[in-house]
Amino acid sequence: MRGVGMKGAAIMVAATAILVAGPSFAEDKSSYTLFNPTPDRLLRDMTTDRPDVTESPFTVDAGHIQIESNLFGYWRSRPDEEGTVTDSYDVARTNLRVGLTSSLELSLVWQPYGVVVAHPRAPAPAIRNSGMGGVAVRMKYNVWGNDTFEKPGSTALALLPILILPTDRDNGISPEHVEGALIAPFGIKLTDKFGLTFNGGVAFVRQGEMTSHDAEYLASASLSYEWNDKLGTYYEVGGAFDREDPLGDVAFVGTGFTYKINKNLQLDGGVNFGVTRASDRVNPFIGLSARF
Questions:
Q1: Could you tell me if 287 and 71 are in contact, meaning their C-beta atoms sit under 8 angstroms apart?
Q2: Distance CA 18, CA 154 (A)
Q3: Angstrom distances, CA of residue 171 to CA of 8, 64, 98, 156, 168
Q4: Which of 141, 95, 105 is nearest to 33 (CA)?
């Protein structure tokens, strides 16, 4: 850049970055709260934390409620060390998300009913457990990008702490102990059609005969594509690592779709495939999300 100088070049580079990343400002929505809802004309496009495992970096607008339900899910495990194969069924697991401010939401994830059927090697009979699952209390804070994720190059970041509470320690469905996690969802708009979201985090779990909580590291990435204003698809990889489990780490690949019935109602479905011994072999599911 002849005749510009180092300082001028730096300013030009910074200006170019701003143009590529999109606007760093939006209409001020800080005055809206749970009791002073965001008006419809300022609502963001509806985004969900499903169907992929990767959490989105966006929150629900202040004063609005979003219900995201896994209408039905099925998991088929690989054989464990003793050769037992497990079938799991999930009915109406629901994430209730409530917008507290323009950048903060509270959510509760509840599994009202689940069934787990373990099939040991013959001639041992199958073992069936059923009942209510645990309750996860989540608080998502959008650091940036809620209202500026429009042009290619735009980014968004959030922090998502999670506390998981047992409801029945003996039913084989709910976790037996209090557990927790901290996840950092990050998204980038690659083009007008493609988006990429990353998750990194750590979970603190206690299972079986463990006497203390163990840290497991979580990572996933989801590539989404918008075919039109209604239909979208995604392709995902993810896993949990450094697990205190004789079968080792969990890793999976998955794909699925979203279909917007209208601006406040979305149907989705997909399937995950495990790629390690500790992963479930297959996990198909279908769900529905609605905003109020």
A1: yes
A2: 9
A3: 67, 34, 29, 39, 6
A4: 105
- Full-model pTM: 0.87
Domain borders along the chain are 5-291
10-to-1, 3, 18, 152, 274 alpha-carbon distances in Å: 11, 13, 12, 22, 47
Structure-block tokens of residue 222: 């989801």
Which are the contacts of 117, defined by CB distance < 8 A and separation ≥ 6? 86, 87, 88, 126, 127, 128, 129
Q: Which residue did the predictor score with more confidence, 22 or 174?
A: 174
Burial (Cβ within 10 Å: 0-12, 13-18, ≥19) of residue 223? middle
Cα distances (angstroms) measured from residue 219 to each of 56, 139, 186, 187: 13, 19, 11, 14
Phi/psi for 196 (5° steps) reads -135, 130
Question: HEC states along the chain?
Answer: CCCCHHHHHHHHHHHHHHHHHCCCCCCCCCCCECCECCCHHHCCCCCCCCCCCCCCCCCCCCCCEEEEEEEEEEEECCCCCCCCEEEEEEEEEEEEEEECCCCEEEEEEECCEEEEEEECCCCCCCEEEEECCCEEEEEEEEEECCCCCCCCCCEEEEEEEEEEECCCCCCCCCCCCCEEEEEEEEEEECCCCEEEEEEEEEEEECCCCCCCCEEEEEEEEEEEEECCCCEEEEEEEEEEECCCCCCCCEEEEEEEEEEEEECCEEEEEEEEEECCCCCCCEEEEEEEEEEC
Residues 103-154 have pLDDT tens digits of: 999 999 999 999 999 999 988 999 999 999 999 999 999 999 999 999 999 9
CATH 3.40.50.2020 fits 5-291, yes or no: no
- Residue 6 pLDDT exceeds 80: no
